Amino acid sequence: MIDVSVIIPCYNAEDYIDKCLNIILSDKLKNIEVILINDGSKDNTINKLNKYKKEYKQIKIIDQENAGQAIARNRALSKAKGKYIMFVDIDDFLEKDALYKMFTAAEKNKSDYVYCDFYKHYEKSDEVFRNNKIQDTKKNAILANYAPWGKLISRELIKEIDFKFLEGKIFEDIAVMPLTAAKSKKPYYLAEPLYYYNLANVNSTIRTPKYKKKYEDIFEVSDYIYEQFVHDNNIFKYKDEFEYIFLNGILRCNVLLFSKYKEGLINIGKLRKNVLKKFPNIQNNKYAKEENVKTRFITQLTLHLPPKLLYMIKKIVN
Questions:
Q1: Does the pLDDT of residue 175 top 90, yes or no?
Q2: Per-residue pLDDT at 202
Q3: Alpha carbons within 13 A on the beta-carbon side of 210
Q4: Which of 46, 62, 294, 311 is most exposed, with minimal Cβ within 10 Å?
Q5: pLDDT value at position 209?
Q6: Contact at 8 Å (CB) between 154 and 84?
């Protein structure tokens, strides 16, 4: 059996392919497959991927019409043969021997869900982000960054919970990753930054100058998470953790996102109502109380400040 299947969606990624793939292919862990999904790229992506395929037997390519990241990942997942799965974004990259370290940690600790620290990678510097909010490994896994990258997930767990990304939606990561962590039997925290999250990429979905109707996917994502949360007793017992996810990942982040655009202001009240209906006492969340003064102040702004004032503040700050 292959040790790890690395799944990498690619869209107009010609500038990032070499760095991302060269690090993965030089990893000490050699029994891997790298599944690259060309998601309807209009640049030279597919040609560059095919060059790697000719040179490396570990490379597999799926070439499809543009369908979005969730569909691309799900399609690759259905073909993956690894004992563990790792998702990587093509504009990001791994630390040296990250696969070997995470695989070794999973095997040694008999873990079905390994998560690590990561770097926030800027144009001229890197900042370490620690996923160590609390000591409880399971609760910590739920609270860890919501992205699929920086995790090693066992095939057994993926099959058991029928793991899939929400297709056709953005924010599909927060819709599934905390739930997956909550359903894992033995998560393990590897306290080492092994992933570089590229914040220098100005083409990111949430860093565009124009408002996108897709931002409103957060309402459907919010309802999906909550439905899963309330109907599974094994997840419902992590109420404090999921309440904080709604405060931080659903409410705070997306109120600030909507406030960047005039077209988004109408959705701020709607989002507040959506979240507060689910968690009426959300601002008293135990984890929220432990945040620093600045973050608690931002929470109060996102909960109570009129949308137009938020918009004006964002304009001034930016």
A1: yes
A2: 55
A3: 2
A4: 294
A5: 79
A6: yes
261 CB neighbour count, 10 Å cutoff: 17
Distance CA 93, CA 21 (A): 8
Rounded to whole angstroms, the Cα distance separating 226 from 89 reads 27
Residue 51 lies inside a defined structural domain of this protein: yes
pTM of model > 0.90: yes
Concatenated DSSP letters of 16-64: THHHHHHHHHTSS--SEEEEEEEES-SSSHHHHHHHHHHH-TTEEEEEE
d(Cα 225, Cα 242) in Å, to the nearest integer? 9
Question: What interhelical angle do 45-55 and 17-25 show, nearest 10?
Answer: 20
Amino acid identity, residue 156? E
CA 144 to chain centre: 10
Sequence letter at residue 141: A
Residues 177 and 223 placed together within one structural domain of the fold: no
Residue 206: the pLDDT is 52
**Closest-CA residue to 102 (of 24, 161, 181):** 24
Of residues 298 and 208, the one with the higher pLDDT is: 298
Q: How far apart are CA 58 and CA 35, in angstroms?
A: 8
- pLDDT band of 248, cuts 50, 70, 90: very high
Helices 172-183 and 217-231 pack at an angle, to 10 degrees, of 10
DSSP 8-state class, residue 241 = H
- Confidence at 200, pLDDT banded by 50, 70, 90: confident
Query: What does the pLDDT average to over 285-309?
Result: 95
Domain of residue 264: give its range: 213-317
CB 88 within 8 A of CB 152: no
Cα–Cα distance, 147 to 115 (Å, whole number)? 11
For 79, 102, 299, the CA distances from 311, given in Å and listed in that order, are: 45, 42, 15
- Out of 172, 198, 224, a domain closes at 198
